[in-house]
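Mods, move this if it's the wrong board.
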Amino acid sequence: MKTWKYKVLLISQIILIMFLFSTILTHSQTATNSSAIQQLNQSIQSILNRTSSYPAAAVPSWLDTGSNAWMLTAATFVGLQSVPGVALYYAGLSKKKYAVNSALMVFYAFAVVLVIWMIAGYSFGFGYPALLSIHGYGIFGYPVPAWGGLFEASETTYGPSGLHANIPTATFIFFQFVFAAITPILLAGGVLERMNFKAWMVFVPFWSLLVYSPVAYWLFAGGWLNQLGAVDFSGGYVIHVDAGVGALAAALAIGPRLASERRLEAHSLPLILAGAGLIWLGWDGFNGGDPLGATVDAAIAVLNTNIATAVSAVVWMLMDMKFFGKPTLVGATSGAITGLVAITPAAGYVNGWEAALIGIASGSIPWMALYWLEPKLRVDDTLGIFSTHGIAGIVGGLLTGVFANPAVTQFIYPGLTGALYGNWYQLGIQALAAAIVFVYDFAVTFGLLKFIGLFIPLQAPPQELAIGDYAMHGEVAYSELLATIPENAKSKEQQVVLPKKEEEENNEE
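Not the wrong board. Structure tokens:
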């Protein structure tokens, strides 16, 4: 009897062991098959993408190589807008003796913003998760470095809600950097021909971190203004209202130019034209890159950008002819830039005729602000940045709230509609966002400069301004300027250099 029970128990255990083994084997085979199928799919995809010669890790399944290629190209276009685009444009618009200083302010800002962007600016403006949220509304991210190798190679994830894009984080960081860089570069136009370069060197990185990054979080990264419904397709508020209002605050904090120099004396029309051309065509990357991929909406944004710009340039010229009697190259390029600025917040949300209407508004309203409003403010905004960028950005942002077209927004933001299509809330929230950015930007810019002014003079000394580039940087853009420099100023420059040379010679002996 015991022997029979023992045999039954033994057979039962054998059957159980066989069942468990079979289950494990089946699961293992299923996992192996699944892995094999996944590898096969990746291999097929890599062949289709012509990336089969790269390591598998270099072309992960989430990566869209076409979108990545376009985003890197778009970012380079935007970078060229700054260097050499704005550098040439500002140098040409400046007086001859300030051409080097104007270009160097741009060049320095481009370089130093990348440094602060990698150290803290990117994570502060796009970091995930949010460092500070109030009742679920994202305020800003953690200001930490963004240069980890694995982080840069990962799929882009940003903002308080962890938005995704099928491009590497390194591409996204670089694309957002060129936007961050051009913002203080544009601001420089309001303080040219008098700002102390050392003060500029301190101001730019702190302004980028304290003004640009938080506003980018609110309106680019899905932060609290985005969560309330405000939209800014590619930087009408984040870049141009920031730059324009910042220029106004900076001009007020720093003070005016020398009394004899408070007028625009563009010294090189060819430089202006070359710079404006780079800025115009570079804007295809500016607005065309905002969908973060090679999409239908990217194409629409590029076309709208050029429509609005062309219309705005023509309207500005007509305004010049009406009130000044003749069109000018400086005026035409100013109108083109206000068109670029005004279409920026709306580029991927409107159709062609709506873009043309925005161009009409941007060629006329900023013109009136520049020639009728700014003189009443009694602020020495050297190149009229408040009107051409601040006012134009606000005009474009408000018209986005009017014209946002569901036939277009379906390609990037389904459900977004403007007042013209029955959604008056959109116009209201666009106006609120403009007011908030205006007040925040003005207050922080003015306060930051006044604080820096406690330690470094904000204006270059009058004796330096009387000479210009040679006194500021020891070099000039045009050799004929050397003949206009007093001999005592030249000797001072030489006295700074000669002791260093003599010291080197003594060391060699």
